[in-house]
Amino acid sequence: MSSPSSSIESVLVENRVFEPSAATVAAARVSGMKAYEALCAEADKDPEAFWARLAKEHLAWHKPFTQTLDASDKPFYKWFQDGELNASHNCLDRHMGTPVENKTAIVFEADDGAVTRVTYKELLAKVSQFANALKARGVKTGDRVIIYMPMTIEGVVAMQACARIGATHSVVFGGFSAKALQERIQDAGAVAVVTANYQMRGGKELPLKAIVDEGIAMGGCESIKTVITLQRTPTACHMVAGRDITWAEAIAGQGTDCPPVFVGAEHPLFVLYTSGSTGKPKGVQHSTAGFLLWARLTMLWTFDLRPEDLFWCTADIGWITGHTYVAYGPLAAGATQLVFEGVPTYPHAGRFWQMIEKHKVSIFYTAPTAIRSLIKAAEGDEKVHPKNWNLDSLRLLGSVGEPINPEAWMWYFRNVGHERCPIVDTFWQTETGGHVITPLPGATPLVPGSCTLPLPGIDAAIVDEAGHDVPNGAGGILVIKKPWPSMIRTIWGDPERFKKSYFPPELKGYYLAGDGAVRSADRGYFRITGRIDDVLNVSGHRMGTMEIESALVAKTDMVAEAAVVGRPDDLTGEAIVAFVVLKRARPTGDEAKAIAKELRDWVGKEIGPIAKPKDIRFGDNLPKTRSGKIMRRLLRAVAKGEAITQDISTLENPAILEQLAQNN
Ligand code: 6R9
Fold first, then answer.
1. Residues 58 and 207 placed together within one structural domain of the fold
2. How far is it, in rounded angstroms, from Cα 283 to Cα 265?
3. Checking CA distances to 11, which of 86, 111, 426, 443 falls within 20 to 30 Å?
C-alpha cells in the first residue's frame, strides 16, 4: 500500500469551493444539485427501473430487452441481455434523417496541421465500406481484430467497422512494442490486424507496420490471416504477399452500404488490455449495450453536451478514454469532435491552445500530466503561455487519468478556463467503461483536486479491509457496491482472474477499484489518493510493477532479480524506479550507467518506451523478509530518498538499504 497520508492532509486543508454560475446551472441538462439528487434518489429506490428507463431512452434497439439485470451468476452480471442492437448503428445510422446527418462528425488535425472533416453521413459510408472490406478479408461476427493505428479518422473507422459486423476489436496503443503486440494477438486469438505503415508524431515518422511484422514473426500468431495497412505517409513498407493488403486496396470496389449485424446486448464490443498487479496484462472485456449506454449518457451528463459544441478529448484511441470519449461517446451523442494526430509540444508547447482557438473548441478534456508539462513550458517561455491565444470558445474543461493536484487545477481554471469554465475531474478506469465519480458542470460545487461525487446509479463507497464503511475524513479502499451497466464483464479468457481481481470475498461482493480514497468531512467529496495495488500511474498510463519486473528478469544473461516501485514525480505523477541485482558483481560509475541504459532499452523493447524505468539502482541483493519476500515499502522509501523510519525488524539484511540508497 502506498502511503496516502500526504494526500489526506491536502484534502483537509483544501477549502476553496467554486459554485457553478447561475447561468451555467440554468442552461444545464442536470440543472442544480436538486436535479442531481433526484436522479440519485431514483437510482437508489429502484436501480433496475432506473437503468431500464435510461437504456430505453438512450439506445436504439433492434429488439427490445425484457430483463434489465441478470444477477444469477455473480459477479458475471448481465444487462439488457435479451435485447439486440448494434453499436455502430447507434453511433451513425440512427442520426440519418435527423439534422445530425450532415453535421461534421470529426474534424481531424494532422501532426503537420492539415485539417480534414467528415460529416456523419460520410463517416457512415466510410465505416460501411471498411466493414465490407473486413468481411471480404474473411473477418466474421465474433472474431477478434487488433487495431494498431495512429490517431486518424481511419482509426475510428476501423473500430466502428468492427462493431458494425460484430467483430470484437482490441486496440493496442501505438507506443507498445512488438513483444507486447504479439502477446495481445495471442491472448485475443485475433484473426486480423489493422495498422498503418507509419505514424507521424512531433514531426517524426515512426514505424507501425514494421512492428506488426516483428510481433507476428515472434511466433504463435498463426491465427492472423490478414494485415490491413493504411498508407499514412508516402514511405513504403514491407508487405507480405497473400497476408498483407493496403487500406486503399482493401476498400477498392467495396460498396458504401453494409447492413449492421445486430448482436445481443452482452456481445463483447471490445477487449482492451490494461496493467494489473501481476505480470500479464488483463484483457478487459466490455459489453455492447451497457458500455454504449454509459458512453452516451456521460457525454450528456458530465460534459452536458449541446448540439453546437466542439468537443475535444486529447486521449489516444489506444486507451480507454479514447474508446469511450473519441470512438463511441461523441458519435453516440451526435457531437462534432476534434481528433488530433500529434503531440501537445510540437511544433511548440502552445499547440493545444492554438488548436482550441483555431477550431473554437468548447469542451476540452485532457490529462493532468499534459497540463503539468504545459504549465512548465509556459513558465519557461512566455510565447507558449495560453494567454497568447483566444480561448473564449471554451465553456467546459475536463481532467482524467490521475489525481490532479490543486495547484495544477487552479492554473488550468485560471489560465485556460479564465475562471469561467467549470472543471470536471472525472475519476474512472478501463474497467468502469466511463466516468463513475465526477462533478456535473451545472450542479456540483467544485473543490480543486477532488472528483467530488458519484454519478447517479454508481454506488461508490470507501470501506476498510473487511468491507465496512469508514467515516468521512478517514481514508480507505474505494469500492462500488452495486453493479452498473458499463462495468467490465470479465477478463478475456480468464474468468477466475476477473473474480479474484475485482470481487475479493472479504469485500462482500463489492467491485474493488484498486484505488485508495478519502471523503471530505464536510461535503463527503471523494478524493482519490492513488493505487493501493502494484499498479503505477506514469503520465496517466497504467503500468504494472510486476510487468516491468518480468521484463527485467527476462534479460536472463544479465539480471538475477529486480524489484520495481513508484516514486512521486512533479511532472509525470509517478516515476518508475527499478532495483536490480545482476548476475555479475554490482557495477558502479560509468559501467553502471551503461548497463542501466541497456536495461532501459531492453524494457522499451519488451513493453514499450512508456515502461522504461527513470532510475535504475544496482544492489548486491534486495531487502527481504526472513521468509524471502521483497520489502517494497522500504524500497519505496529508498526511491524517494527518505530516511528509513519504518519497522525493519523482519528485514533479513538491513545493510542493503544503505547500499541501494546510493545512486551508484
Ligand atoms: C480513465 C483511465 C485508471 C486509474 C484509476 C486511478 C487513475 C483516473 C482519475 C484517476 C484520480 C482521476 N485515475 N482518473 N485518479 N483522479 N480523475 O484513466 O483509465 O487507464 O484504466 O486508469 O487511473 O488510479 O484506477 P485507466
1. yes
2. 19
3. 443
For the cut 70, the answer to whether the pLDDT of residue 172 exceeds it is yes
The average pLDDT across 321-332 equals 98
Does residue 357 sit within a domain?
Answer: no
ipTM: 1.00
Assess whether 187 and 308 both reside in one domain.
Answer: yes
Residue 101: which residues within 8 A CB-CB, separation 6 or more?
95, 119, 120, 121
Q: Are residues 204 and 253 in the same domain?
A: yes
Atom of ligand 1 nearest to the CA of 438: 17
pLDDT tens string 518-530 = 999 999 999 998 8
DSSP letter for each residue of 504-544: -GGGTTPEEEEEEEEE-TTT--EEEEEESSSEEEETTEEEE
For residue 180, what are the contacts with CB-CB under 8 A and spacing of at least 6? Answer: 172, 281, 606, 607, 608
Q: Summarize the annotated binding site for Mg(2+) as residue ranges.
A: 553, 559
Structural domain ending residue among the three candidates 484, 516, 548? 516
Which of 482, 516, 550 is a domain's end point? 516
For cell 463513475, name the residue.
436
Mean of all residue pLDDT scores within the chain: 94
Instruction: Report the domain count for the chain.
Output: 2
**Any atom of ligand 1 within 6 Å of the Cβ of 134:** no
Domain co-membership, 94 together with 209: yes
Measuring CA to CA, how many Å separate 479 from each of 362, 381, 437, 511, 647?
33, 43, 11, 5, 30
Residue 308: pLDDT over 80: yes
In CATH, what number is assigned to the domain containing residue 36? Answer: 3.40.50.12780
Listed range (23-27, 32-36, 476-480, 651-655) with the worst mean pLDDT: 651-655
The answer to whether residues 335 and 199 belong to one domain is yes
Ligand 1 center from residue 278 Cα (angstroms): 18
Per the CB < 8 A criterion, the answer to whether 359 and 395 are in contact is no
437 within 8 A of 458, measured Cβ to Cβ: yes
- pLDDT class of 44 with cuts at 50, 70, 90: very high
Identify whether 40 is part of a domain.
yes
Domain of 276, in residue numbers: 22-342+427-516
Q: What's the 405 CA to ligand 1 centre distance in angstroms?
A: 14
360 within a domain of the structure (yes/no): no
pLDDT (tens digit per residue) in 396-433: 999 999 989 898 999 999 999 999 999 999 999 999 99
**Mode of pairing for the β-strands spanning 144-148 and 192-196:** parallel
Confidence of residue 643 (pLDDT cuts 50, 70, 90): confident
182 and 97, same structural domain?
yes
471, 543: one domain: no
Task: Output the pLDDT for position 2.
Answer: 34
Which residue has the CA at smallest separation from atom 12 of ligand 1? 427
Query: Are residues 544 and 474 part of one domain?
Result: no
Question: Which tens digit of pLDDT belongs to each residue from 385-397?
Answer: 999 999 999 999 9
Q: What is the mean pLDDT of residues 156-176?
A: 97
Tell whether ligand 1 has an atom less than 6 A from the beta carbon of residue 316. no
State the distance from the centre of ligand 1 to the C-alpha of 429, rounded, in angstroms: 5
Question: Average pLDDT in the 6-13 region?
Answer: 45
Distance 367 CA to ligand 1 centre (A): 10
Is there a domain that residue 635 lies in?
yes
Share of the chain above pLDDT 90, in %: 86
- The CATH number given to whatever domain includes residue 577 is 3.30.300.30
